[in-house]
Structures are given as structure tokens and as C-alpha cells.
Amino acid sequence: MIEAIKGQQNVCLALCRCDSCGAETSFNALHVAGKGGSAKLRKLALREPGMVNKSLIDRGWSVSPRGVTCPQCKQAKKTPQPIKEFAAMAANVHPIAQPGLGSVTELRTPTREQKRQIIDMLTAVYDTKASRYTGAETDLTVAEAIGGGILFGWVAQIREDLFGPAGGNAEMEALRDDLLKLVDTYGTQLARVNAQITEATRILDVLRMDRGELAKVVERVAAMSTKLERICKSVGPKGAL
Ligand SMILES: [Zn+2]
User: Fold this and answer.
1) Is 158 a member of any domain?
2) What phi and psi values does residue 110 have, to the nearest 5 degrees?
3) 77: CA distance to ligand 1 center in Å?
4) Distance 21 CA to ligand 1 centre (A)
């Protein structure tokens, strides 16, 4: 709210009051010249409201047809805006439906026609005896195959209700079997290599032992040879004489 008031010494002022919190500011502003009569009864009015608005804006206030706002309130109003934008963004994001659980927040539901399409497709690709999908099918591939905005959460719901558990599919099972075979094959090979290492280590130990024995024998022979040489030397000259 902006109004014309008289300040001390009858000075002409513009009084501005924040419409949100009531904070006030006042500054010199020209008033409409009096038209006679008692000054006290005369209604005061600003001569140049536009100038007053400009002064307010220069002071950090905002002025709009809804009223005036002090800098503090202006700041406070500004701050929550990103949160509002975020909330709007969040409202536009569709929650991801989880297979088997359905979706708590997803309000869209399949039409009768869509339900029939899902059932038809599940009948074609779900193996109720094995309680699993055939081939490489999943809730997602079924939803994508039908198209038309079908959510895989709907497929999951109808499959759970009328067909059976997700239980993977034939291809996944085949892969799992292959994997188990590989684990088995390499497990056997690993055991064999381990046994070979153990055997090689044992042989190495025997060889080391033999080497030790041989070294001792060589040492003894060398010692005997030295002794023999010494004996020959002591015998030799005497025999020659
Ligand atoms: Zn305020």
C-alpha cells in the first residue's frame, strides 16, 4: 500500500507499507496541490505515483497491481520457486511400475480391450506347465509387442493373476544350464591341475633329496681322492730312492 502522508515539519512524504509483512518505508514525494479548504480535511494524494513506484523499486521493493512487497518478502517469495518447479517436474514423471508388484502410484489402468490383448499374448507365449515364459519372452517384451501404451506392470499383474510366476523363460533356463555345465567342466579341470601340481611338488622334493645325497657322495669321493694323492706323494719319493 502506498499513501501520501505529512511528516515532521509538514513535509510531503510517500508512505509505503509491505502488503505481506507490514514493513514500512517513507521518503519525500510531491503531493497534489491543495484546492483550498482545511488542510486537515483535505485528502492527501501523490502527484507523481510513477516516481514513487520507481523510488520504491530502487530501494529493492517490488510494485505490482497486487500491491507492494518489501525486499525481505520479495526474497522469501523467490526462494520456494525452484521447489515449485521441481514439484511440477516430479508430477510429470511417471512412476516405474514393478513387475509382480503392480504400481501403487500409477493411476492408469488397462482398458478391457487392452486386458484382452495382454491375455491373448500371454496365452501365446507363457508356458503354464513349466510356469515360465517360452523363448526369450518377458513381461516387457509382451508389453512392447502389443504396444499402444501397454505398461509391462499391467502384463505382470495379469500374468500373476491368470498364468503364473515370471519364472524367467526357456532361454534363460538354457543359459543357466550351459553355465552350470561350464562350471562343472572347469571345476573338473581345476581339480586335475591341482592334483598335477601336488604330484610335481612331491617329485621335486624327491629330486632335491637325491641331489643332497649325491652332493654328499661327491664330497666324500673328493676327500678320498685328496687322501689318496697325499698317500701317493709320501710313498713315491721313498720308493724312488
Ligand atoms: Zn514485507
Assistant:
1) yes
2) -70, 145
3) 10
4) 4
What pLDDT score does 18 carry?
93
Segments in the chain forming alpha helices (H): 49-58, 71-78, 81-92, 112-125, 139-146, 152-158, 170-240
Distance 9 CA to ligand 1 centre (A): 28
Show Cβ contacts of residue 208 under 8 Å, excluding neighbours closer than 6 positions. Answer: none
Domain that holds residue 37: 2-78
Instruction: Kindly tell me if the per-residue pLDDT of 232 is higher than 70.
Output: yes
In a domain, 144, yes or no: yes
Domain boundary at 168, 194, 214, which?
Answer: 168
Report how far ligand 1's centroid is from the alpha carbon of 16 (Å): 11
Pair (8, 74) in one structural domain: yes
pLDDT at 169 over 50: yes
What separation in Å is there between the alpha carbon of 67 and the centre of ligand 1?
Answer: 11
Residue 156 has pLDDT above 90, yes or no: yes
Q: Which of 24-28, 35-39, 237-241 has the highest mean pLDDT?
A: 24-28
Q: Which of 111, 120, 132 is nearest to 176 (CA)?
A: 132
Give the pLDDT band (50/70/90) at residue 103: very low
How many A from CA of 116 to the centre of ligand 1?
60
* Domain end (from 59, 78, 97): 78
Instruction: At 56, list the grid cell.
Output: 520504491
Q: How far is the CA of 105 from the centre of ligand 1 (A)?
A: 39
pLDDT of 38 above 50:
yes
Q: Are 49 and 32 in contact (CB under 8 A)?
A: no
CA of 55 to the centre of ligand 1 (A): 16
The mean pLDDT of 88-97, rounded to a whole number, is 56
